[in-house]
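User: Fold this, then the next.

Assistant: Folding the first:
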Amino acid sequence: MTSECLQSMYSGVYRNDIEYIQRKEQISMYQILATDGKAKRASFETVHGTIQTPVFMNVGTAAAIKGAVATTDLQEIGTQVELSNTYHLHVRPGDKVVKQLGGLHKFMNWDKPILTDSGGFQVFSLAGLRKIKEEGVYFHSHVDGRKIFMGPEESMQIQSNLASTIAMAFDECPSSVADRDYVRKSVDRTTRWLKRCKTEMARLNSLPDTINPNQMLFGINQGAVYEDIRIEHAQQIAELDLDGYAVGGLAVGESHEEMYRILDAVVPYLPQNKPTYLMGVGTPANILEGVDRGIDFFDCVYPSRNGRHGHVYTNHGKLNLFNAKYELDDSPIEDGCQCPACRHYSRAYIRHLLKAKEMLGMRLCVLHNLYFYNHMMEEIREAIEKGEYKQYKAKKLAGFEETT
């Protein structure tokens, strides 16, 4: 393909892709810049920009953050990576529609990295609506009930149509309380599916009509709460030399202590020269503990979901702005916070909006929470660079125990 053709294909939000293609073979995609214990401060270069880690990805399941938050808002609050979901976008509006409109970046007007979840977790959460086979999963849409099939190849094809920066492998997420025999068989199938995902992505990235031929693939470690199965699986998938590795199947019912135990056991067996991603986690305290165990990427719906219900995060604990004690409180959600809500509005006003069911109240709370998470990640990166992460973590956790 000529450079003119490439230039035409990668116009708009893909303006940096040609330079990226030219130097892709010359760079180390993931570079550890500093460490403090197991905590890592790194950079991860992608076709849509460099990600500074540790990073919290803001979750926009259906290509939008719930709470009337636009991508222009995400730019303002310091979002590095947006996360969307393969299953939901396949069902509505349809991944082929998104491809015809130029891919997810152009569709939602976002020029930074996007990670798409494979849809596996959502499919397997439809317990009464799906049937698992070696080729993939048959299930019924939660929207209109139509029968859908999704396997490794289909998941990769959908994510290629979406043209995300990072695609997640299609896996099965077994219950944390599933019996050992089932988990073993499930993990073995996930490994076979991962190999099929890798083969299919290589094929898709070679096609001339692929929007993002530099799409990356992250594999997912599974194994419920069985350390030996987790470790064996980590060793197996590490051999596939993927772009990154996630720890999945946690924060799905097990205790925080169990989650930390699994991370202590499995993270050392994942490649240290690749980014690690703890899927679906979590609270600010969970993130601090995950970073301390070598995790780079995090995502969770908590900041947006809690914000929509008037629950906001601060360095001195979580507040419920519906409480009557904030009726005459003319202070911001948190003094010193530079989010759009705290710079312009009081707790009393936001409480009024929430009580009146005005959408602006929900929106301001979501913006504050996402800013809080994004800013905390900036602080984490700085603390690791200074070699002060242990002290930072202890101070932050102590603050979360306070009440305002």
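Now the next one, as you asked:
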Amino acid sequence: MTVSSDGESEAQQTVDRDPVPNVTLLELIAIVSEYAESERELLATVVYMVNGGSVRLCGNFKGARFDLNALTERQPSCAA
């Protein structure tokens, strides 16, 4: 067990934090879409929340993270 400089143990610090909410990807998108002003803002917010650990995905996407490198490599081509 480790004790921090203010005398609290790691276990006590963990108990004091708010738990990370578990949500499905559909629930997260529905909630964020109520406040987002564009699809771009919606996607950026969802990716930020999931990758940053603000929320934890459950259901079909349990534990998933977004690989931003994979998203930028596949640029859509414009058909003439």
